[in-house]
Amino acid sequence: MNGGRPKPIGDIVAQLMARRGYANERSAVAQQEAWQAVAGQSLARFTRVGLIRRGVLEVLVANSSMMQELTFQKTSLLEKLKTQLPDVNLRDLRFRIGAIE
To answer: Tens digit of pLDDT per residue, the chain (101 long)?
Structure first.
């Protein structure tokens, strides 16, 4: 309880967004947009951003040759992503071959 005082509207909206998952959807879109900006169209069209677990962003890659190219550029891509997503504590990138829709 808030001592009988009304709750600030910002707190209520934040709780509602968290319950409904809107914050996760918004952050997933922001992560995908940041990845596309950093990777560029030529790489981004063969990839899809996955989840971030313990500071590691998983990126699904269409094939092994593209995965090798991304591995060569991993350090640069990670540094650029850190600037694009300053609120996300990124430590590493993990590339995995998977279905790209």
So the answer is: 556 777 777 666 666 555 544 444 457 888 999 999 999 999 999 999 998 889 999 999 999 999 999 999 999 999 999 999 998 889 999 999 998 87
pTM comes to 0.72
The contacts of residue 43 (CB under 8 Å, 6+ apart) are 66, 69, 70, 73
- Residue ranges and CATH numbers for the domains of the chain are 9-97 (3.30.300.180)
